[in-house]
Inverse folding.
């Protein structure tokens, strides 16, 4: 015998009304990444030929600092949403799906923190030695 | 009962260009995500100092490193071109069969053109 009212039984089972948020943010980040990717691709292509001092000086230019941080943070967000969709499509075991999604979110958070710390470290303290 | 091939007979089905482009979009997306880890490692190495920068940079300068870098750059450009196509689709346009095929060819051409421009840029 179930003593729950019909309302109590369905509460929390329906749509959270946020279903389109990830989809929409994937598009928003994609639009921002169009120009940023072209910009970064040009600099990445000459990366094997640059010296340490050149890299430090390049990252320290305010314009580059902001664009580089924008590219990496948006990319990590975009990648997180994209990889989650890939997992949801191909992983059918509920626990594996949960673990995969959780893993991706945690790794993204860690990479985001590493990026912000590294770039600010380079900009404000320069390279040491 | 004998195992029979299921519809749509994927073993004998020749994927159309649009399907290849779609699969490649996903594959490049996953590959780009993995590359992001290396990009962050590179930044950490720069922040750490010239010694660790030199270590990572010499890996990048090796043949394998350069191949990986250019593979990543091309993946980025391809993902960008097909991603642009997705944004057009999101407006609800361009789903006619003829348009689909034509744009798949455009995407490949555009990504190749972009990477050629970069190669040219580096070599001058």
């Amino acid at each position: 015998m179930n003593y729950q009212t019909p309302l109590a039984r369905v509460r929390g089972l329906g749509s959270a009304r946020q279903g389109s948020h990830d989809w929409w943010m994937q598009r928003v980040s994609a639009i921002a990444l169009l120009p940023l990717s072209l910009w970064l691709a040009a600099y990445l292509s000459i990366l094997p030929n640059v010296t340490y001092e050149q890299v430090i000086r390049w990252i320290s230019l305010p314009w580059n600092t902001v664009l580089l941080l924008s590219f990496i943070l948006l990319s990590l967000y975009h990648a997180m949403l994209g990889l989650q969709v890939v997992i949801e499509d191909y992983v059918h075991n509920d626990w594996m799906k949960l673990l995969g999604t959780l893993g991706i979110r945690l790794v993204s958070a860690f990479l985001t923190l590493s990026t912000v710390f590294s770039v600010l470290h380079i900009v404000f303290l320069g390279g040491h030695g | 009962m004998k195992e029979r091939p299921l519809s749509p007979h994927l073993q004998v089905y020749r994927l159309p260009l649009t399907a290849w482009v779609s699969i490649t979009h996903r594959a490049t997306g996953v590959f780009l995500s993995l590359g992001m880890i290396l990009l962050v490692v590179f930044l950490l190495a720069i922040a750490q100092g010239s010694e660790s920068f030199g270590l990572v940079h010499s890996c990048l300068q090796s043949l394998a490193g350069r191949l990986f870098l250019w593979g990543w750059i091309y993946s980025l450009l391809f993902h960008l071109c097909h991603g642009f196509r997705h944004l057009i689709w999101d407006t609800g346009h361009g789903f006619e069969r003829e348009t689909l095929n034509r744009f798949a060819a455009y995407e490949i051409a555009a990504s190749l053109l972009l990477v050629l421009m970069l190669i040219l840029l580096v070599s001058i």
